[in-house]
Design a protein that fits this description.
There is one protein chain. The chain has one domain (about 1-70): Thrombin, subunit H, CATH 2.40.10. It contains 1 helix and 7 strands; from the N terminus they run ββαβββββ. The protein has one helix at about 20-25, and strands at about 1-5, 15, 35, 40-45, 50-55, 60-65, 70. It has a 4-stranded antiparallel β-sheet with strand order 1-4-5-6, with no helix packed on it. A 3-stranded antiparallel β-sheet has the order 3-2-7.
Length: about 80
């Protein structure tokens, strides 16, 4: 597994789909907010490569979120 931490200058923001918001504790994420990505990890899942983002939730916890469940946010 490869892990990369992003500096403040390299950080980017993502938004969540409604389906993804439902996967996490109530109040952790919203479909109308932009969330900064703090780190990336590459891993193998079910024989395929997967990328996860480390993202702070609105509830104060950090979560690993599959890249496929997010989209880039406009700044």
């Amino acid at each position: 597994m490869q892990l990369t931490y992003l500096s403040v200058d390299e950080r980017f923001f993502v938004r969540f789909t409604e389906e993804t918001v439902a996967l996490y504790p109530a109040g952790a994420f919203s479909v109308v907010s932009n969330y900064p990505v703090y780190a990336l990890r590459l891993r193998e899942a079910a024989g395929q490569d997967a990328t996860d983002f480390l993202i702070p939730g609105s509830d104060g916890a950090f979560y690993w979120v599959d890249m496929a469940h997010t989209r880039l946010a406009r700044r």
